[in-house]
Amino acid sequence: AKATGKNTFSVYKEEMGKHLSARLQMEKHLRNAINQDELYLVYQPKINLFSGQVIGVEALLRWRNPKLGLVPPNVFIRIAEESRMIIPISEWVIENTIRQLQAWQGTEYQNLSIAVNISSNQFSHEDFIHDLARQLDGANLPRRLLEVELTESTVMTNADENIKRLQLLRHKGFDLAVDDFGTGYSSLSYLKRFPLTILKIDKSFIDGVPNDDEDMSISQAIVQLAHSLDIKVVAEGIETHAQLEFLQELGCEFGQGYFISRPLEIADLNKWLQQHGK
Ligand code: C2E
Ligand code: CA
Ligand code: CA
Ligand code: CA
C-alpha cells in the first residue's frame, strides 16, 4: 500500500494522544505520590544581605517517582492544580512545614521562618486562612514563623476580593510575600492597598545583572517602590557575587539564590546552618 497519507490532522491527533497519555500517566502516579512517600521538601536559605544572617528558608516541593524520576515542580504542580490534587498536596506541604518548625523549637533555629508557596486555588479556598491559623496554634507555634508566598498573578486576579483575604491573613499574624514580582500585571494603586510584608524580585531581573541596563533599572525601581511603601524586598535567584553586591548597593535587604545556597534536603540544611553560624 502507498504511504497511508496521514494528513496533518491525524498526525496532530496522534501527537496529542501521546501528550495526553503521558499527562494522564503522570496524573495517575501523582495520585499515589503522598501514600507512596514520594514527596519531600527542600529548603533554600534566605539571608540578610548586609549582615549575612539567615532569616528563614523557603520550602520547595519535590516529587521523585520510581518510573518518572524527579519531576520538576513547575510540571507536576500545574497538573495538580488542574486536577484538584493540589488540595491534598498542599495540605501535605503545610503539615510537613509545621513539623519542621516544631523540630526547630527549643534550638538555636527556633526563630527561622519557613516560606511556603501557596497556589491560587488553595488561597481562594474558603477555610484556608482559618485552617492555617488553627494548625499553627495547635502546634504551639507563633504564626509569623510561617510566611505565605503568593505569586503576583494570584494576588492580582480578583484583586478587589483578595484585599479582604490578604488583610485577614495579616490580621491573623502571618507574613505575606508576593512572589515573581514584576513579571505580571501589577497595578501600583493596588500595591498600596495590599497589606504586604515582602516583595520578591523575580529571578528574571536578577539574571540581567550586571549586563542588562533595563533589568538593573527595574530591580532598582522595585526596591525603591517597595521601600516607599514600607515593604521589604527579597531578591531571588542570586547566582554571582556581582549580583549580590549590586543588590546591596540598591539597599535590598534580603536574598536567596545558588550563590548563597541551593535548596537543600533537611539534613544538609541543618549542616549548612551549623557551618554558616548563628
Ligand atoms: P518559585 O517559588 O519562584 O521558586 C524559586 C525557584 O527558583 C525554585 O525552583 C528554586 O529552586 C529556583 N532557584 C532558587 N535560586 C536559584 C538560582 O540561584 N538559580 C536558579 N537557576 N534557580 C534558582 P523550583 O524548586 O524548581 O520551583 C519552581 C516553582 O514551583 C516555584 O517557583 C513555585 O512556583 C513552584 N513550587 C515549588 N514548591 C511548591 C509548593 O510547595 N507549592 C506550590 N503551590 N508551588 C510550589
Ligand atoms: Ca516562591
Ligand atoms: Ca519566584
Ligand atoms: Ca532587557
Q: Can you tag this structure with a few keywords?
A:
single chain; 278 residues; alpha/beta; binds ligand C2E; binds calcium ion
Polypeptide structure, described:
- The chain is an alpha/beta fold and 278 residues long.
- Helices cover 49% and strands 19% of the residues.
- The chain contains twelve helices and nine strands.
- The protein has helices at 8-33, 73-82, 86-104, 120-123, 128-138, 152-156, 159-171, 188-193, 203-206, 213-228, 241-250, 266-276, and strands at 39-48, 54-65, 69-71, 113-117, 146-151, 175-181, 198-201, 232-235, 254-255.
- An eight-stranded mixed beta barrel has the order 1-2-4-5-6-7-8-9, surrounded by five helices.
- Strand 8, helix 11 and strand 9 (254-255) form a beta-alpha-beta unit.
- The radius of gyration is 21 Å and the shape is globular.
- The N and C termini lie far apart (76 Å).
- Ligand C2E binds at residues 44, 60-61, 72-74, 77, 93, 117, 119, 179-180, 236-239, 256-258, 263.
Please give the structural blueprint:
Blueprint: H1 8-33, E1 39-48, E2 54-65, E3 69-71, H2 73-82, H3 86-104, E4 113-117, H4 120-123, H5 128-138, E5 146-151, H6 152-156, H7 159-171, E6 175-181, H8 188-193, E7 198-201, H9 203-206, H10 213-228, E8 232-235, H11 241-250, E9 254-255, H12 266-276
Parallel strand pairs: 2-4, 4-5, 5-6, 6-7, 7-8, 8-9
Antiparallel strand pairs: 1-2, 1-9, 2-3
